[in-house]
Amino acid sequence: MKFIRSGFAPIIIILSLLITLQACKAKKLVQKPAPPVEAPQPAAPVQQVAPPPPAPVPAPPVQKPDYNFSNIQFEFDSDVLRTDAYPILDKAALQMKMDPSVKFVLKGYASEEGTPEHNMTLSQDRANSVKIYLVNSGVSTQNITATGYGTSNPVGDNSTDDGRRLNRRVEIAKSN
Predict the structure, then answer these.
(1) What is residue 74's DSSP assignment?
(2) Which of 173, 1, 141, 143 lies closest to 71, judged by CA?
(3) Reduced to 3 states, what is the DSSP secondary structure of residue 45?
C-alpha cells in the first residue's frame, strides 16, 4: 500500500495501458484464404434465333382534300380582294396543292349594277384576282381556269343590298 500512496500508482496505470495498446497494435488481422477459383466450363453452343419480324405499322390515314371552299366576296365595282378573303384562299391553296392532278375552275360573278359588258369584264377580273393569289401561293397555273360569268347565276336577290353583295363573288369549284 505504501507504493500506491507514494504517487507512483498513476504512472504504473498509464504504463500498463500503453503496453496493452502496443500489444493490440502489433496483432495483425488474420485473413481467410480465398476459395479456389474453378476453371470455367465450356458453354454449350448458343443457337442463334432470328428475331420475329416486326409487326406491320399501319399507314397513317390519307387525308382527302376538302374542295368545299367558301365564296370569295368583293366590294361594289371592284376586283380587289378583301382581306377577309385571305384565310379562305390560303385554305383553298393548301387543299389544291395536296393533289396536283385535280383541276379547278374559278367562276367570277357580278351584281346587276352596271352594263352587261362591264359586269362580264368585272366578273372575269375578279376570277383573275383569285387566280393570281392562288398561283402566288404555289398552286400550278395549269390547274386553274378563271372564267367570268357576269350577272348569270345569282345567289342573292339583286333588288336588295344584301343580295347584290352576295352576287359579287368568285366561286372555286373542282373541274369535272
Answers:
(1) -
(2) 173
(3) coil
**Mean pLDDT throughout 98-118?**
93
Sheet with 144-148: list strands edge to edge.
Answer: 72-73, 169-174, 104-108, 144-148
| Range list of H helices, 85-160 | 86-98, 116-136
The helix (run of H) or strand (run of E) holding residue 26 is helix 9-26
d(CA 24, CA 29): 11
Domains and CATH numbers, the chain: 72-174 (3.30.1330.60)
Q: Band of the pLDDT at 5, cuts 50, 70, 90?
A: low
Q: Alpha carbon 42 to chain centroid distance? A: 55
Specify the pLDDT at position 103. Answer: 94
Contact 166, 175 (CB under 8 A): no
Residue 152: pLDDT over 80:
yes
CA dist 17 and 11 (Å) reads 10
**Whole-number CA gyration radius for the chain:** 49
Q: Please check whether residue 110 is in contact with residue 119, taking contact to mean a CB–CB distance below 8 angstroms.
A: yes
Is the sign of the CA dihedral 24, 26, 27, 28 positive or negative? positive
Q: How many CB atoms are closer than 10 A to CB 128? A: 17
Cell of 56: 406491320
